[in-house]
Amino acid sequence: DQQVKQNSPSLSVQEGRISILNCDYTNSMFDYFLWYKKYPAEGPTFLISISSIKDKNEDGRFTVFLNKSAKHLSLHIVPSQPGDSAVYFCAALGGGSNYKLTFGKGTLLTVNP
Amino acid sequence: NAGVTQTPKFQVLKTGQSMTLQCAQDMNHNSMYWYRQDPGMGLRLIYYSASEGTTDKGEVPNGYNVSRLNKREFSLRLESAAPSQTSVYFCASSEKAGETQYFGPGTRLLVL
Question: Are B35 and B90 in contact (CB under 8 A)?
Fold first, then answer.
């Protein structure tokens, strides 16, 4: 049973435009959500997070939105740059464990020059 | 700061061989973790250590053992490797439970 779902395996956008990556979850006890970026042959790099008590968190070009009623979060990247091309993982903490990050399967973002 | 470091970067084993994956962090974090990533899947937790001196099973612990050697180091041991353990292994650390986890570069393991 997949508790964190990223339904789009891939996304392609033009440089300078907005990238929107989506994530859905099923466990209402998750209370902290994170986005990681991963380049090939490297470890996941922490990007941005949001607590369940907030609905938005912004850091430079990256903004995460959380809709608790819909159990949905999204990552917006504006403007997108070719260096943003990577696999993006949505992850959640809580849900009975403060140790286990529950990951989605990832979305491959390609930003075309 | 190096963050989280892992050795080796890549290893090939034959079925039945044993090996230890090493992980160290220099961020003075209390909690450390081992995950594995398989093709087309997110990362899954193998074992974690909430603090120095404690270890607990995660989601997929079978076939593995761990040692929290000190606050900095957390090792993962495969006693008798199997082809199903072919994967990429990531170590991570966090200041404490419930906080952001920071990952190492990974160890690619191939079991023939």
Answer: yes
CB contact under 8 A, A98 and B104: no
The answer to whether B6 touches B106, Cβ cutoff 8 Å, is yes
Cβ B105–A43 below 8 Å, yes or no? yes
To the nearest whole Å, the CA of B72 is away from the closest chain A CA by 18
- How many CB atoms sit inside 10 A of residue B51's CB? 14
Give residue-wise pLDDT tens across range A31-46: 999 999 999 989 999 9
Q: Which residues of A touch B106 (CB under 8 A)?
A: 41-43
Q: CB of B102 within 8 A of CB of B27?
A: yes
Q: Do A99 and B103 touch (CB under 8 A)?
A: no
Tell me the pLDDT tens digit for each residue of A44-102.
Answer: 999 999 999 999 999 999 999 999 999 999 999 999 999 999 999 999 998 777 788 89
Residues B28-69 pLDDT 10s:
999 999 999 998 888 999 999 999 989 999 999 999 999 998
- In Å, how far is A111's CA from the nearest CA of chain B? 21
Q: CA dist A45 to A48, A106, B7, B111, Å?
A: 10, 13, 18, 27
Amino acid at A89: F
* Shortest Cα distance, chain A CAs vs residue B27, angstroms: 15
